[in-house]
Design a protein that fits this description.
single chain
Amino acid sequence: MCRISATEVNSIINHSVDNVQPFIATAHTLIDEKLAGKGMSADLLKQIELWLAAHILAVTLARQAKSESVGGEYSVTYAGVFGEGLKSTTYGQMVLPLDNTGELAKASTPKVGLNV
């Protein structure tokens, strides 16, 4: 059973998606696979699941703009430094310090291999 509701996700991310349940389910599964049984409180797991669901939603459907302009007269550049994985959204960036195991950061780091 998921720890969070669609209402909770909708309260932290502005989007136009009709059904956020698949994003919640994905976050829940990842949290259960990577963090369950690692000594975290239920409250902390719920917070991680909330921010992770918002991150998954943001990277798939509700992309965050880095800058916007209209007709050359109006422009907006959003603050923040963005990278890959969980660093690609402000929601994912919230997950990183909440996950004191580092498991989710490791899971979102690209794997590099070298065969000789």
